Amino acid sequence: MELGRPNLEEFAATLLELARRDRNVLVLTSDSRGSGKLVPFASALPDQIIEVGIAEQNLVGIAAGLASAGKKVFAVSPACFLTARAFEQIKNDVAYSDRPVKLIGISAGVSYGALGSTHHSLHDFAALRAVNNLDIVAPADNFETREAIRAAYHHLRPIYIRFGKQPMPHIHAPGTRFELGRAITLRSGTDVTFIATGETVPRAVQACDVLAKRGVSAGVISMHTIKPLDEEALLIAAQTSRALITVEEHSVYGGLGEACAAALMQRGVFKPLRIVGIPDEYTVTGSQSEIFAHYGITPEGLATTAQRLLAVESVR
After folding, report:
1. Do 25 and 154 belong to one domain?
2. Are residues 62 and 12 in the same domain?
3. Measuring CA to CA, which residue among 21, 28, 117 is closest to residue 67?
4. Is the CB of residue 88 less than 8 Å from the CB of residue 269?
5. CB atoms within 10 A of CB 232
6. What percentage of the chain has pLDDT greater than the value 90?
7. Model's pTM, two decimal places?
8. Which of 56, 165, 200, 306 is disulfide-compatible with 85, CB 3.0–4.6 A?
9. Which of residues 169, 194, 211 is at a domain's end?
10. What is the extent of the structural domain holding 294?
11. Are 235 and 219 contacting, i.e. CB atoms less than 8 angstroms apart?
12. pLDDT in tens, 6-57
């Protein structure tokens, strides 16, 4: 797979493109223009960026106020702090007040790997899924990032979009259509389907290649929108594959995996399922790749998980 740039850089470039055409686009940051790759934006459009300092609650409150005045506001902050420190403001000032703020969580998941669990954002899906009137998106590559930001620009509801820090492979074919709330099927498989989100998606695609060499037919769905979940795509995967594996850079509690499990159970669909993510523990310290390797979120690790699940399913 050809390597692209970090999704954050794609986000910043797309946002600058939109803001050049619309002076109502405003960016708010909490001492994060550098880490958010927004220095070029600030240089080009200094009147359209506001720095609030390390004050995430103020960031969200101000963003909600500006959105109420008709501005198209992108509030940018590290995901671990944005969704924990400012949770009340997200719940009340943005979602309850129905302000179409675009909440951008940067360096999400274990992107701040070496800084340890205090800087990991493994709770954001779980916390924000419980908030009414808030959509949640985790783009997998530059294409999904670009299209998600363009969609968010027109979006009339509050939305949270999270990004990591690593350069991302291009995984989509030309002509692919992106729509919020609609998953993208990257590959089809009759034995197992990986339902992945964010930066785990390319690893799931690579796992399919590993499995193909072992005679296993594997598919991949990029579930870029965590909420609202594309239950139709999930059900199709359940009907066409013997087993399902969800993959996310998030706690195994409250994220994509549990959302899929609940959707299937409530539809009366019983299918072998594994939730791959970060277990209920303080994560090991290391780079994102090292942490992924430790928890089996690698092509080889995912392939092994798939084969074990299929082996159990075969003896039932």
Report:
1. yes
2. yes
3. 28
4. no
5. 10
6. 92
7. 0.96
8. 56
9. 169
10. 184-314
11. no
12. 999 999 999 999 999 999 999 999 999 999 999 999 999 999 999 999 999 9
* Residue 62 covered by a domain: yes
3-class DSSP state of 230: coil
What gap in Å lies between CA 267 and CA 256, rounded to an integer?
17
CA–CA separation, 155 and 104 (whole Å): 14
Distance CA 67, CA 61 (A): 10
- The number of distinct structural domains making up the chain is 2
Beta strand pairing call for 218-222 and 184-187:
antiparallel
CATH number for position 161: 3.40.50.970
Flag whether pLDDT at 238 surpasses 80: yes
Look at the block and give the residue holding tokens 């399919």.
208
Residues 48-87 as b or e (16 or more Cβ within 10 Å = b): bbeebeeebbebbbbbbebbeeebbbbbbbbbbbbbebbb
Q: Is 148 a domain residue?
A: yes
| Residue 8 structure tokens | 């954050």
Mark whether 23 and 95 lie in a shared domain: yes
Question: How far apart are alpha carbons 100 and 74 in whole angstroms?
Answer: 10
Q: Residue 237, SS3? A: helix
In angstroms, the Cα distances linking 258 to 156, 173, 195 are 27, 29, 12
Q: 307 burial class (0-12, 13-18, 19+ CB within 10 angstroms)?
A: middle
State yes or no: pLDDT of 108 exceeds 60.
Answer: yes
Handedness of CA 59, 178, 234, 219 (dihedral sign): negative
User: Sorting pLDDT into bands at 50, 70 and 90, what band is 2?
Assistant: confident
Residues 55-83 pLDDT 10s: 999 999 999 999 999 999 999 999 999 99
Q: What percent of the chain has pLDDT over 70?
A: 99
8 & 155 share domain: yes
Whether residue 46 is preceded by a cis peptide bond, meaning omega within 30 degrees of 0, is no
